[in-house]
Structure prediction request, 133 residues.
Amino acid sequence: MWICEGGIMLDRMKYVWRFNPETQEFDDVLPLMVRNDPGAYYVIRDGFGDLWVHDPWGRECHANFEYVEVCGMTFDREQFDPDGVDGQRTTEEPPTRSLYYSLTPEELDDLRAEMRRDGQLMKERLAVLGKKF
Prediction:
């Protein structure tokens, strides 16, 4: 199973806009810029039509359903919708996508077992490190 550490997988990004705080405008950039220059604000439209905001600290979250907020300023979602996907929405809230709901019960059990093993391993390592000091 592939889980993207720290954000949206590069191959899922369809459109990316980088925020320029000096001009308070967005520039179209290639998706590769998010990985090469992560210390900026980006608005990302993924292949599912979801709109994300990426901040300079590597955090990502869904944009508000009515607008996009960057640096305390609000922007109209339409400027980040070149394919017109927002106009095709049939609900008032975006669908919730989460790793938990995308796994089968067996995969969930495997993931929980792996997390327990990782937790036990960390406890053992911390106990060894604690004895050294």
User: Anything to note?
Assistant: The first strand starts at residue 13 and ends at 20.
